[in-house]
Design goal:
The chain is an alpha/beta fold and 475 residues long. The protein has three domains: 11-163, Alpha-D-Glucose-1,6-Bisphosphate, Chain A, domain 3 (3-Layer(aba) Sandwich), CATH 3.40.120; 186-381, Alpha-D-Glucose-1,6-Bisphosphate, Chain A, domain 3 (3-Layer(aba) Sandwich), CATH 3.40.120; 386-471, 2-Layer Sandwich (TATA-Binding Protein), CATH 3.30.310.50. 38% of the residues lie in helices and 22% in strands. It has helices at 21-36, 55-68, 82-91, 124-138, 148-153, 163-173, 176-179, 198-205, 234-242, 270-284, 300-307, 319-329, 352-366, 370-381, 398-407, 457-471, and strands at 11-14, 44-49, 72-76, 96-100, 109-116, 157-160, 185-189, 209-212, 247-251, 258-262, 267-268, 291-294, 312-315, 333-336, 340-343, 385-392, 412-413, 416-423, 427-431, 436-441, 447-454. The mean pLDDT is 95.
Length: 475
């Protein structure tokens, strides 16, 4: 059996190969044992699921086991975005939450996310405890379970609906009056995922004209990967232009990541959107606090923070670390380049729905297009261009690439002086002129991720080329 391991954000595996009922049952028992090892007399958990193949059935299997361990189960009756489950954990004061989802992975994957009582992604010390319990089950420890009808009779399970409560919570974070400053037309693409209906419902209530695509369940996700990045958003880009819309909004499979398309049908990368939203937040809110970003996220946030007297906290890659810093330092805004964002007052979990609504609020309040807002941002803080490349490699090649990475310690890269080299979970080369390069291996795929930022596209491409040539990989 392949060992069950929680990666950057949960356990994900290919359905029928490693994501099986047998393995899921072990994971559910591991989570139940972890919850029961905690303090407090009354344990409870929220369970949600996305639109993937068999996700509702897998969620019910988890419910049988959690209830069998004496843990009260609040089962969400509709497909649930991860941020909604996180909200439910806090709203109901639960011991934790489980989401059956593989997020933005391809359709043949499914997975499990565990959300602890603090309503954010599980940190390594939590998932390591769960993995220890899973290993005990694999070695013969008992799985406790109960029939769902019997669980209901014992008040160990109840079905709940919190969609409206979640949207009401978002009302406290958004400024409804700003949305009414300018009439906008919006196209929404939930990518067949669990976020279907949330953006449409909220914006329609405000009188905003909304068109929606890919807004029904399709377990194959239209034969694309439900990740809201440029290569997967052709239909949204085309729809924005066809409908003469002001903005296009996309969500990933469990709606914790966002993607934005401007009125010309151009994709705006997550780094730039987060910088724009930070600038908007500072202009429209009085609350202040540190800005939290991962090591792979744009340093444009640093420039904005510095000129506004704010501290920047840098974390390793993974929103779980952003969440931890947001909680510990009362952060104003936390972001990661892959389209993850949360703000002060919200649950410490990335929320694509909130990010998309903030983008619409920003446009309506300013009366400006995304392009105009971007030029204004660059005028105030200077231009930085960034990009992530994912290099797929064949099985067995990772040790060689790691060896080459470790040996890559030049004094200059593409003519720019190397100021420092950091070698931790990822390797980062800090260069002159605010440029930097970072490389890390994916925890879920045979992929080397390369992140680059520089003053302009020409410099960025030169840095990428020099790096790929040194490692003998194709970019």
């Amino acid at each position: 059996m392949t060992p069950i391991h929680f990666g950057t954000d949960g356990w994900r595996a290919i359905i029928a190969r490693d994501f099986t009922y047998a393995n899921l049952r072990m994971v559910a028992q591991g989570i139940a044992a972890h919850i029961n090892s905690g303090t407090g007399p009354r344990k409870s958990v929220v369970i949600g699921y996305d639109n993937r193949f068999m996700s509702p059935e897998f969620a019910q299997e988890c419910a049988r086991i959690l209830a069998g361990n004496g843990i009260k189960v609040h089962m969400l009756i509709n497909p649930a975005p991860t941020p909604l489950v996180a909200f439910a954990v806090r709203h109901l004061e639960c011991s934790g939450g489980i989401v059956i989802t593989a997020s933005h992975n391809p359709a043949h994957y499914n997975g499990v996310k565990f959300i602890p009582a603090y309503a954010g992604p599980a940190l390594p010390e939590v998932t390591q405890c769960i993995e220890t319990e899973i290993n005990r089950v694999a070695e013969g420890a008992k799985i406790y379970e109960i029939d769902l009808k019997e669980a209901a009779q014992l008040s160990l399970i109840e079905e709940i609906e919190l969609d409206n409560a979640y949207l009401t919570h978002l009302d406290k974070l958004l400024r409804r009056e700003h949305f009414k400053a300018k009439s906008l037309k919006v196209v929404v693409d939930p990518m067949y995922g669990a976020g279907m209906g949330f953006l449409e419902q909220y914006l329609t209530r405000l009188g905003i004209e909304v068109k929606s695509i890919h807004n029904h369940r399709d377990v194959m996700f239209g034969n694309i990967v439900p990740e809201p990045v440029e290569r997967n958003l052709f239909d949204l880009r085309r729809a924005v232009v066809s409908y003469n819309a002001d903005i296009g909004l996309a969500l990933d499979g469990d709606a914790d990541r966002f993607g934005i398309v401007d009125q010309e049908g151009r994709f705006i990368n997550g780094n730039l959107v987060i910088a724009l939203l930070l600038d908007h937040f500072l202009k429209t809110r009085t609350v202040r606090g540190p800005v939290v970003r991962t090591v792979a996220t744009t340093h444009l946030l640093d420039r904005i923070a510095k000129l506004n007297g704010l501290q920047v906290i840098e974390t390793p890659v993974g929103f779980k670390y952003v969440s931890q810093a947001m909680r510990e330092y009362n952060g104003l805004l936390g972001g990661e380049e892959s389209g993850g964002l949360s703000v002060w007052g919200h649950v410490p979990e990335k929320d694509g729905i909130l990010a998309c609504l903030l983008a619409v609020e920003m446009m309506a309040y300013s009366g400006k297009s995304c392009a105009e807002l971007t030029e204004e941002l660059y005028r105030d803080y200077g231009r930085l261009v960034n990009r992530r490349q994912d290099v797929l490699f064949t099985q067995g090649r990772e040790p060689l690439l790691k060896e080459r990475l470790s040996a890559f310690r030049p004094k200059t890269i593409s003519g720019l002086k190397v100021l420092s080299i950091t070698d931790q979970e990822e390797m980062r080369w800090s260069l002159a002129d605010d440029s930097w390069l970072l490389a890390r291996f994916s925890n879920t795929e045979p992929v080397l991720r390369i992140y680059t930022e520089s003053a302009d596209l020409q410099s960025l491409e030169a840095i990428e080329k020099a790096f790929c040539e040194a490692l003998e990989i194709n970019n």
